[in-house]
């Protein structure tokens, strides 16, 4: 008995299903680990600033920047990823609303936190942390502006992909410099209070959190470029 070609499955169907399942598993794992790293970094920074007699401006700086960059802006990027658990069941339109609210709120808080520290510390720009923090604030400002422009001109479909890409790139640069600034803060201050081991652990956690967040951001950028 012969089997007709019409009833045969292509030889690569099984392999494609395996590859797709593996890809989905890896993306889900990446997002789960990223959420863990983000929580650990936020806790580490906020716990640190409350463990010793920090100035009022330093506490406000940490609270606002950690909330803005780590909690809100990072989650805003992850919210558009189809593998993010807490937005997986939402419609794309709802994800976009959540993204814009978190991104705008996070940017405003992060910029405010940076300005508070700049005003209070006269020698802020003599340290690597202060200089990189200024760069992060500038990128955050332009990311916020590009996001608002993108939001206003969403109805013009011919320009939407370009504005989205620009916003995504600026947002990725803002997040990257913010995390680098945080690592420098851990290196300069955390090390003196908790020692080398704890400082190094916090820096590694921040690095993994950044990698996970950027993975999601780059996925969105490539999707927009090639869509």
UniProtKB/TrEMBL annotation:
Compartments it resides in: Membrane
Bilayer topology reads: Multi-pass membrane protein
Transmembrane portions of the chain: 36-55, 61-80, 100-119, 131-153, 165-187, 199-222
> What cofactors does this protein use?
heme b
Question: Top-level EC class, please?
Answer: translocase
Cytochrome b561 domain mapped to chain residues? 29-224
InterPro entries attached here? CYB561D1/2, Cyt_b561/ferric_Rdtase_TM
Q: Which UniProt keywords apply?
A: Electron transport, Heme, Iron, Membrane, Metal-binding, Transmembrane, Transmembrane helix, Transport
Q: Name one GO molecular function term.
A: metal ion binding
Q: Show the GO cellular component annotation of the record.
A: membrane
Q: Which residues form the signal peptide?
A: none
Question: Which PROSITE patterns does this one have?
Answer: CYTOCHROME_B561 (PS50939)
Q: Does the keyword Nucleus apply?
A: no
What EC number(s) does the entry state?
7.2.1.3
Q: Which PANTHER family match?
A: ASCORBATE FERRIREDUCTASE (TRANSMEMBRANE), OS05G0565100 PROTEIN
Please give the name of this protein. Answer: ascorbate ferrireductase (transmembrane)
Q: Which organism is it from?
A: Parnassius apollo (Apollo butterfly)
């Amino acid at each position: 008995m012969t089997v007709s070609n019409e009833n045969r499955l292509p030889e690569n169907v099984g392999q494609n299903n395996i590859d797709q399942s593996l890809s989905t598993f890896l993306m889900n794992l990446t997002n789960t680990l990223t959420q863990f790293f983000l929580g650990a970094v936020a806790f580490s920074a906020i716990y640190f600033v409350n463990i010793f007699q920090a100035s009022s401006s330093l506490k406000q700086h940490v609270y606002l920047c950690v909330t803005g960059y780590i909690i809100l802006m990072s989650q805003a990027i992850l919210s558009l990823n189809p593998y993010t658990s807490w937005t997986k069941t939402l419609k794309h339109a709802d994800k976009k609303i959540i993204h814009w609210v978190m991104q705008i709120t996070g940017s405003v808080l992060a910029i405010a936190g940076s300005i508070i520290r700049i005003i209070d510390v006269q020698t802020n720009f003599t340290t690597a942390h202060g200089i990189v923090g200024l760069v992060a604030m500038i990128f955050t400002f332009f990311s916020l502006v590009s996001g608002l422009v993108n939001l206003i001109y969403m109805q013009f479909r011919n320009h939407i992909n370009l504005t989205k890409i620009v916003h995504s790139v600026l947002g990725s640069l803002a997040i990257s410099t913010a995390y680098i600034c945080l690592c420098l803060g851990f290196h300069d201050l955390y090390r003196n209070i908790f020692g080398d081991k704890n400082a190094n652990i916090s820096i590694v956690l921040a690095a993994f959190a950044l990698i996970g967040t950027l993975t999601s951001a780059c996925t969105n950028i490539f999707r927009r470029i090639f869509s």
